[in-house]
Amino acid sequence: MLDTQHVFTEATLDTAYSWLCKQRRNFPANADIWHLRFHWHTIHSELLQTLHKQDYTFLPLSVVTKADGETLHLWSSQDALVLKMLAMALPEALALSSLCTHIKGHGGLKATVNDLRWMQNWALPDYRYVMKTDVKGYYESIDHTILLKQLDKDITDPFIWRLLVQFVKRSVERGGTFKSIHCGISRGCPLSPVIAAYYLKALDEQMAGDTRYFYRRYMDDGVPRRRKEGHCPSCSYAA
Question: pTM of the full predicted structure?
Answer without folding.
Answer: 0.81
